UniProtKB/TrEMBL annotation:
This is argininosuccinate synthase. It comes from Coccomyxa viridis. Residues 55-215 form the Arginosuccinate synthase-like N-terminal domain. Pathway: Amino-acid biosynthesis; L-arginine biosynthesis; L-arginine from L-ornithine and carbamoyl phosphate: step 2/3. Keywords: Amino-acid biosynthesis, Arginine biosynthesis, ATP-binding, Ligase, Nucleotide-binding. Its EC number is 6.3.4.5.
Amino acid sequence: MGLAAAGELDVHSLAGALRSMKRGTALPTAPKRSHRLQSRCLVRTCALDKSNVNKVVLAYSGGLDTSVILKWLQETYECEVVTFTADLGQGEELEPARKKAEAAGVKDIFIDDLREEFVSDYVFPMFRANSLYEGVYLLGTSIARPLIAKRQIEIAKQVGADAVSHGATGKGNDQVRFELGYYGLKPDIKVISPWREWDLTSRSKLISYAESKGIDVPQGKRNDPPFSTDANLLHISYEGNALEDPWQEPSQDMFTRSVSPEQAPDKATYLEIDFEKGDPVALDGQKLSPASLLAQLNKVAGDNGIGRIDIVESRFVGMKSRGVYETPGGTILLTARRAIESICLDRGELHLKDELMPRYAELVYNGFWFSPERRALQAAIDETQKFCSGTVRVKLYKGNVMVVGRKSEYSLYDEKIASFEDDGGLYDQKDAAGFIKLQALRLRTMGANRGV
């Protein structure tokens, strides 16, 4: 198909017109684009077409920001708003969100307990990759967004909504994560991002708007909070304001999920974690559901001062940001997982996973959970976990997680071969000489040729 047939203006026709045209002569117009191309364009622009928005599903926490967004959507878009509140283990009472939504005139209110799905279908698959963004971040906020987006789209289909909305700002990563999830699951969905549309660009404007609409503003919200937080069963994050200077140490009274290592017990805690196909299934011999297991790991890890990190990360939108995170149970889980893999996985599998991990972690961080490349990497990673079963014993002491034992019926570790004692001929040490000479051949050749 030529350019003109594809809906592009023919270059030769345009050149001829430019040579012959007089001032004021209209340029030839391009043929109309195909319906398919028009649809693609609508994905990017229709979210701003208020006339086509009749019902919106809002990701709603019941806090000040989303309460303002709820009212703003009702007035600006003159549409019905459906609220969706996800229980991901953030540790907050969610019924107040229902009451606030009811007071705002919302008819359809969804409050869903997604804790088990969150851990089993999102956290654990991500941990099979041993994911660390930029070497340190366990992706606690990132991994929650695709599940919220998925459930929002499900609700939108259920109630016949033609749009979804979120409370992420135009500076952060979450707007990208939410919206890539929306479009990946429903390409024609309309997305409303108030922070990119309204003029409530300061805290004082937000509060003034809330007060003018009769929205309750808690006393603690009237001044800039010392930091912004986001919590779920995997972690809690602290960002902004008091933490924006990366030189300043965070205040110890900020942390909510862990004691400081200095205040942790003087006696070590031992813990055994059973794994099946790469996922933890039991603690100290007790079988637990994914969410219950992670919750118990959080408790014992937090009591021992484990899981705090203070990092400057590279946001997908381009800027650097400083964040402080508590991921108590996840920190133990990552260490224990690597220990069980060390005896159950072949060297090639281990090293390939380590090569794939940064790419996988970046996909999760940037919001590409539903992308074909993440799914492809997941399939490769899950293949390596088929024989990754066994038990790891860890020692917890004042902020540290130390592996002190590991065992598996699928262990590739052979004590007889590894032993410094007589191995009965299982390994002929003389063979190493030829192995080394072959490995050194290219180095010896280069040295002789280059005179080094």
